[in-house]
What does this fold into?
Amino acid sequence: MALPRGERPTLKMIAFMTGYAVTTVSRALNDAPDIGAETKRRVRLVADQIGYRPNRAGVRLRTGKTQVISLILNTQEEVMGITSHLIYGISEVLAATPYHLVVTPYSYSNDPMEPVQYVLETGSADGVVLSRTQPDDPRVRLLAERGLPFATHGRTDMGLCHPFHDFDNAAFARRCVEELAARGRRRLALLAPPPEMTYHRHMVTGFVEAVHDLGLDEISVPGITVDSSLADIRTATAHLMRSPSRPDGIISGSGAATFGLVAGIEAAGLALGREIDLCSKQSTPILSWFRPQIGVVDEDVRQAGRELAHAVLGHISGRDAASLQTLMRPTGPVWAANPATVVADP
It folds into this structure.
């Protein structure tokens, strides 16, 4: 529906076209709990048709709300499309609300507290989504102390109940160990996340317990993590695979890191599926195209974004934090052409 040239859509226009009062229209657009679903649907439909966009400065003056969710992301998380999938999932949920997403980036060389402090000092967001969570995360502690709603991609271990969404990395590692053992592999290695990350603890615990339970041998992978450069992973893997104590099965905690592992294995003159099997987590369905011999477990990062959006919105609305925690469980791994699937538990 086109408006006369130069005329800006307003709440009054929507009220006239829907037959509702201006206050009802305003509350429907702001997702007020006392407004019915059908009223909200009708108001939003008309608002979309005429291209209505709220004056955010005015909204902030009236309500004290920015209608912004800040996603604080490390700039190096774009490898394998993790960032884009996370943003898409969050944006998909926010599209049905008055909120919009602003990405606040930082790099490994910066203090990860800086973007959080900036949001708090400027009041530039009503809620925050954090990634790369640590067991005792100072960002989480600060946000909780200041009362700004937030959700984390990953769990903490600091005795603080807060909204989160996580992938069950312990179950991922156990499944990979069990599948590699079923394929006859006895000497297993894990390329794990950096030790300061919470999911390092989960993944290593699942791996070590499964190796012990099945009577297998654990082979260490010294000097590298999934965050190491592909060149460093290739070099370290090639050296490991040329040693007399080389593994015959490797688990990779990152799809991006798996490219370095494959390069190192092949540089050592070994073949996937023959001398060694490789099982990897991935967030983009590319590894089985790259090397069909790789066993893959999918982590649905787009679904993670949806869960995180629901969690932070729920925190903003005052829901209990314990009800805003979800854990995605892996199924698989799967070799050859069949992708693995995951399910999210509420």
User: Anything to note?
Assistant: The first strand starts at residue 68 and ends at 74.
